[in-house]
Amino acid sequence: MNQLLMTVAKRLGLGLFTLLIISMVIFLAVEMLPGDIATEILGQMATPEAVAAIRQELGLDQPIVSRYFDWLSGLLTGDLGQSLATGQPVLELLDDRLINTLYLAGTAALISVPLALGLGVIAALYRNTLVDRAVSMFTLSAISMPEFFIAYVLILFISVQLGWIPSMSKVDADQSLLERLQLTILPAITLTFVTCAHMMRMTRAAIINLLSSPYIEMAYLKGLGPWRIIVHHTLPNAWAPIVNVIVMNLAYLITGVVVVEVVFVYPGLGQLMVDSVAKRDLPVVQAASMIFAATYILLNLIADVVSIVSNPRLLHPK
Amino acid sequence: MIDEKDETTNRPILEIRDLIISTEGRKATRQLVKSVSLSLAAGEVLGLIGESGAGKSTIGLAAMGYARDGMRISSGEVLFKGTDLLKLSERKRRQFRGKRIAYVAQSAAAAFNPAHKLIDQYTEAAVAHGVSDAATAENEAIELYRELGLPEPETFGQRYPHQVSGGQLQRAMVAASMACHPDILVFDEPTTALDVTTQIEVLTAIRRTIRNHHTAAIYITHDLAVVAQIADRIMVLRSGELVEEGKTEQLLEQPKQEYTRKLLSVRNLHKDDTGSGEVVLSVDSVSAEYKPGVPVLQDISVQVERGRTVALVGESGSGKSTLARVVTGLLPPVKGGIKLHNAPLTPTLKSREKDTLRRLQMIYQLPDTSLNPRQRVREIIGRPLQFYLGLKGQEMEQRLKELMAMTELEEYFLDRFPHELSGGQKQRVGIARALAAEPDLIICDEVTSALDQLVGEQILNLLLKLQKEIGMSYLFITHDLGTVDAIADEVVVMRKGKVVEQGRKTDVFSPPHKDYTQKLLNSVPEMDPQWLNKLLAEA
User: What ipTM is given for this predicted complex?
Assistant: First the structure.
């Protein structure tokens, strides 16, 4: 167990280091964005003096290195600076949005992960039969359609024709959990469509890959039924690859759902990020990018830990 | 062995009639088992013997109504107490498997699920078949673990498969097969993957189990000497057909068929001492370790003369393969040095010159993994010709043909891929590849242990022939003392990284022996059906 903690601590340290590198990359990349907040605020016709004045006010005239360290130290003390566009503290701006995004991602994951695992197991159980092909065809068709298309089809049928759920998912902090859930369900279903196929295919492949192992033959020769063989004997040994794909998809749910947010007018991080890039609101863009990077690192760390825990050789050393 | 006198003993508990098993597929199917019949009385042990491809495992599995992927039982009957398993639905068949007929696989390390504790894999079948509840099954498991001499039987089952040794794991599987008190056990080469000394432990455990519980058994193996210790009756199979069948003593003493006689005479290869006095390889007081402070080799000195064979003998973990790694430069020694023709070798592979690399070649245990599956034989053997000797074009072609002739392979094999060759042919390609470099010494790492006995013997014969013709020197790593007798001039017995005994084969193999050498020699199964009894009586 100590060994496990050591590994986790090591990975965590490495993750923090990676995050530091990423912070540099993000800072540089944002610096290199064409355009300038000053001209953005004042318009194309502004006098050079006015531009210089506003640049100085915003601290943009400082050398890049010192601005990076200012930003980094602010980051470490929880001060993400102020939005250049609205003057609001970035933290305040992100706070609600992050919660909304996590809520949507969580809801989508709660539907899609069990669904994908279940479908993967079923496909493996009935491999090369009609059931298997139907499952594959359904999930692959879903992933082949662009997400905005799925979103509009859902809106057309469920919101417009049936009128069950409003098409605009305008959640806010005052709503009850149930109201929120109702508003989140359409975007969540859309995201389920998009992410299910990967996870299901990997579950199926990882299980089938193990079915030719001698211990699976042994399980058959013990007279065990096919369900028990797949779920009890195969799945525990197949976790490592499956978890990695699940994690990639969870990360996507948190960082990559701009289109779905736009279609459903869902106030999430993705939209904020796109808006902020358009407005050259650098502190917001940087902060949001850091959140995305941290998400990837944390989720991959979790995947590593799950892989270790699911491997008895690592969990129970000799 | 059968002590009940009622009529049930006369009726076989298992009868297989006219069993035909073929490959599955749309293309032309091939028959793997060609109309084999057998019967097994209650409490009887039947040995199925033959080389790979004889169909013995396939028949063993068919006895449980099971065919591996890609195979199909096309016709025949498998009658368990009169019920034809093949006519049942898969669901009904499952009620026999593990419960009435249980299976013990060749490699327990692969057949135990790595994700679950041993005890859970014991109780599983009993609970699934409703034979007993988990607690009862667990108590029975502990009893069996004790009976089979497993360490700390109360807590043994709490371990995961990777936490116990190979021999213990194999015994744990024998125990697990007994969970539902089956009427028949199918043993599929249960001792083949084990060291000779461990083999005796497991063999004894198996025999005790089937005798104590009066279980009938089908014992599948390619080793006649092993099956002689355990079977009441033996069936010899070849290419899916029965060659001959008889009571164990009768079959061993008066084999009727030529093929059986050949199998019986396998261990009769013998080599007399040859030598030149010219030292090719000299290993001087080498010590090596993988982790600092944990010595794997301690103070080993070995000399190989031109035209001679030095055999490194020992069980797994004795350090014999590590010594090969040190000689080839894969593992630099922490102490001592290695000389080739009296010239010191640099310790690491990287720092060695091409010509040094050329002069030391290796042949590996598994021809399947040591030949690149995507290269034709021509490329596999041609590569060292080009790399070391710079041959090309006509010259290369000429040499390739010579090498094929030397290793007794047909020339048209040059355009084949490894998977199109048999195990023995693949190993010959491995030998040809080593010879291509025109080495001074070839290190042979368990080169026959993955092969059938008859094929292995042919490979040994080839190595001997090459030694006679071109004076090749071998460092021969093996755990099989029968092989040592066949090929070695000198023997180095190793144990836990140290040399126990070394010298001329005739000296090491004749009394008085060191204790460990004695134990190794005693552990080699003999054709005498009483061999195990005598050995156990002595101990």
Answer: 0.79
